Amino acid sequence: MDFSKAKFDRSFGSVHQITNNSKPQFAFIGRSNVGKSSLINALTSKKDMAKTSSKPGKTQLINFFNIEDQVNLVDLPGYGYAKVSKKLREQFEGLITEYLLHSESLFIVFVLIDAAIPPQRIDLEFLEWCGVHRVPVGIVFTKTDKKKPKQTEANMTAFEKELSKYFVELPVTFETSANSKRGVDVLGNWISQQRSEM
User: Fold this and answer.
1) CATH of span 3-196
2) What is the DSSP letter of 140?
3) In terms of CB atoms within 10 Å, which end of the chain has fewer, N or C?
4) Alpha-carbon radius of gyration of the chain
5) Are 117 and 33 within 8 A, CB to CB?
6) Would you tell me the crossing angle of helices 36-44 and 184-196 to the nearest 10 degrees?
7) pTM
C-alpha cells in the first residue's frame, strides 16, 4: 500500500454514523500530547493529514483516512488531561469507549506511548481496560529521538515491565519518531502485511 495516497474520508461524532464501512480499521490513540497527529502525518507523508496543535485535545471527533480503498487509518480523540471542559472530556471518553467496543471493522488500536518520559499510570490503566474488554492493541512508542538513547531505552523497558503485570504476552510493539521518521516505515509495512493476509 502507498500511504502517501491517503485521503481524508469523514469525521464522525458517533459510532452509529459509521455505516457501510467494511474496510479494516487501524486506529491510533494516546494521551493528548503524545504526538498522535504527527505520527499519522509522518506515516502518510503529508504535513496536514491529521491536524496538529500546540493545544492538547485538538482531535474531538473520530477521523477516518482512506488508504487506497484498502484500509482506514482512524484518528481517535486523545485521552487524559486535555484542556477542555469536564463535560466535553466525558463526551470524548464516551465516544472512545463506544468506538472501541462496538466498531465491527476495528482490526487493532495502536496505543501511543511517549518514550521520552517514564511510564504513566493513565496509559497503563487504559491498556489494562483494553485487555479486560478484549480490544486488540498494539504499542507505538513515540518521540524516541527526544532524549538520549539510554534514557529512552530505560523508559521503554520500564513501561513494558509494568505492562507485563496485565498481559501474559506483550502486544506487538513499534519504536517511532515522527521527526526523524525512525520506525515509521516499519509500522506502515506491518499494516500492509496484515491487510495482505486478510
Assistant:
1) 3.40.50.300
2) E
3) C
4) 16
5) no
6) 70
7) 0.90
Q: How far apart are CA 105 and CA 25, in angstroms?
A: 6
Q: Which of 192, 197, 198, 194 minimizes the C-alpha distance to 67? A: 192
Contact 157, 144 (CB under 8 A): no
Q: Which grid coordinates belong to 192? A: 500492509
Distance between alpha carbon 78 and the CA centroid of its chain, in Å? Answer: 9
Residue with cell 479486560: 132
**What are 135-147's pLDDT values in tens digits?**
999 999 999 999 9
The pLDDT assigned to 59 comes to 54
Q: What does the pLDDT look like over 103-129, one tens digit per residue?
A: 889 999 999 999 999 999 989 999 999
Does the pLDDT of residue 22 top 70, yes or no? Answer: yes
pLDDT above 70 covers what percent of the chain?
Answer: 88
The H or E element containing residue 93 is helix 86-102
For residue 1, give the C-alpha cell. 500500500
Measured distance CA(153)–CA(130) in Å, rounded = 25
